[in-house]
């Protein structure tokens, strides 16, 4: 089925608002909790990982209910609307943690706020992903749909850094990222953007609403079958390779977003403006990568394109590691300009992660006769995200434990060399290892 450019635009732009909120959480919550609120890294890591684990478990559950919903506007759109409204509301609450509250109150506040916002994120993201996979069975059109979705996702990932550039206070020695007000201002704007773009997707894709499956089939299924499906899908080699490869490769994303601000702040001593530009460079390169790798995939297999992109990403990270090792030889401004080209290369390579695994997954689903008979697109989409979110939760726990192990102190504006080296190894070496392992897994596809 041919999908027009306008339809792809309507579908993809909703991911911009969703991604703005989810990326602000991924990029800032660990730093906000430890460096701004003074909560120990282990506790922040536990709170974030519990919410991510819940998010992972809820994905196939929401997918199940979405597959079986019977409503006048289809089975995906009601969940998407609830998710949009809920995300916008709870996102405002997360960043309003009382700075003078006892440690236990801060921990509970962040934990329950994250659980709520992740629930609403799932209400939007899983049905939205399933809707895109159902719009066409054409492999090239599926790649284009996922690239459109990814481009808006990456723009949304960049927006928090742009908002930080705009709203972070200039005082505090140029390191406004250590003050709470900038995060609160960013939350207000990101919620408004999520509401605006989410409603465009909701109304713009109503013509693609999918009706619920026949009652005779639906009665044979139960919510317990979701977990049976999880183990069943892992028995299928093609699904298993893509799911494990995706989960492994996104360890890199968790390390970069969960501890990247720590490294830029305390190792390279970048200001909030320089961090914004660095993160913006990473996202812009990933957006450009969608166009480049998308054209390459018309001449090569998607698997080869995926492996090539990840190899380029590893090259960029290795160059960044060299700069990290030699950082004492240069001033902060020179370090900033030295890092930018390697950040661009890293983002350009790893940009394949945001679209090609999902595109390959969609191709597998399109050729799965058993899936066509049972119509479990939502459940299967949820299982795909469940796997990588479990790995993300594990990575966040590791980050929290490592921060405490290397004796990171949120009250100290200058960290000892041992702490700086620990942060560098955590972010750079962790990223390289996860990308290299994912290449080995994808190579078996």
CATH topology: Growth Hormone, Chain: A
Average pLDDT score: 82
CATH class: Mainly Alpha
Poorly predicted regions are 212-220
CATH superfamily, by name, is MFS general substrate transporter like domains
Quaternary: single chain
Tally of separate domains: 1
Query: Main β-sheet: number of strands, strand sense, barrel status?
Result: none
- Corresponding CATH architecture: Up-down Bundle
What series of H and E elements makes up the topology? HHHHHHHHHHHHHHHH
Give the amount of beta strand, in percent.
under 5%
Count helical runs: 16
Shape estimate: globular
Instruction: Classify the helix fraction into a percent range.
Output: over 70%
Structure description:
This protein is an all-alpha fold and 445 residues long. It has one domain (7-206, 231-442): Up-down Bundle (Growth Hormone, Chain: A), CATH 1.20.1250.20. It is built from 16 helices and no strands. The protein has helices at 5-36, 41-68, 77-94, 103-134, 139-167, 181-204, 215-218, 225-234, 237-266, 272-296, 302-325, 332-350, 356-366, 369-374, 377-405, 417-442. Helix 11 packs antiparallel against helix 13. The model is unreliable at 212-220 (pLDDT under 50).
Would you kindly provide a brief summary of this structure?
By secondary structure, the chain is an all-alpha fold. The protein is 78% helix and 0% strand.
């Amino acid at each position: 089925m041919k999908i027009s450019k306008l339809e792809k635009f309507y579908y993809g732009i909703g991911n911009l608002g969703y991604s703005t909120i989810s990326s602000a959480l991924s990029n800032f919550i660990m730093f906000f909790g430890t460096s701004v609120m003074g909560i120990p890294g282990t506790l922040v890591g536990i709170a974030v990982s519990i919410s991510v684990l819940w998010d992972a478990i809820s994905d196939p559950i929401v997918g199940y209910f979405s597959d079986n919903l019977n409503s006048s506007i289809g089975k995906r759109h009601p969940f998407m609307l609830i998710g949009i409204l809920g995300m916008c509301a709870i996102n405002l609450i997360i960043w309003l943690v009382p700075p003078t509250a006892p440690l236990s109150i801060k921990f509970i506040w962040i934990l329950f706020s994250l659980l709520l916002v992740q629930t609403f994120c799932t209400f939007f993201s899983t049905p939205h992903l399933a809707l895109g996979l159902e719009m066409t069975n054409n492999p090239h059109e599926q790649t284009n749909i996922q690239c459109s979705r990814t481009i808006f996702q990456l723009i949304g990932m960049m927006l928090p850094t742009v908002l930080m550039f705009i709203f972070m206070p200039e005082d505090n020695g140029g390191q406004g990222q250590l003050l709470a007000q900038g995060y609160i201002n960013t939350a207000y704007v990101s919620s408004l953007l999520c509401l605006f773009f989410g409603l465009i997707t909701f109304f713009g894709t109503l013509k693609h609403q999918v009706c619920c499956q026949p009652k005779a089939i639906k009665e044979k299924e139960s919510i317990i079958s979701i977990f049976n499906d999880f183990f069943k899908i892992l028995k299928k080699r093609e699904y298993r390779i893509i799911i494990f490869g995706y989960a492994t490769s996104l360890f890199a994303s968790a390390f970069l977003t969960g501890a990247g601000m720590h490294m830029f702040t305390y190792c390279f001593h970048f200001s909030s403006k320089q961090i914004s530009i660095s993160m913006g460079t990473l996202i812009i390169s990933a957006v450009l990568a969608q166009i480049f790798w998308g054209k390459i995939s018309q001449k090569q297999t998607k698997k080869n394109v995926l492996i090539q992109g990840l190899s380029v990403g590893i090259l960029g990270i290795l160059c960044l590691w060299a700069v990290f090792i030699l950082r004492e030889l240069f001033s902060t401004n020179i370090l900033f300009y030295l890092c930018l080209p390697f950040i661009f290369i890293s983002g350009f390579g790893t940009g394949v992660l945001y679209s090609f695994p999902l595109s390959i997954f969609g191709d597998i689903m399109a050729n799965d006769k058993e899936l066509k008979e049972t119509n479990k697109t939502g459940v299967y989409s949820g299982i795909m995200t469940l796997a990588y979110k479990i790995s993300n939760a594990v990575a966040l726990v590791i980050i929290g434990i490592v921060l405490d192990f290397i004796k990171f102190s949120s009250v100290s504006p200058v960290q000892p060399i041992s702490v700086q080296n620990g942060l560098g190894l955590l972010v750079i070496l962790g990223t390289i290892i996860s990308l290299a392992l994912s290449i080995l897994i994808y190579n078996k596809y």
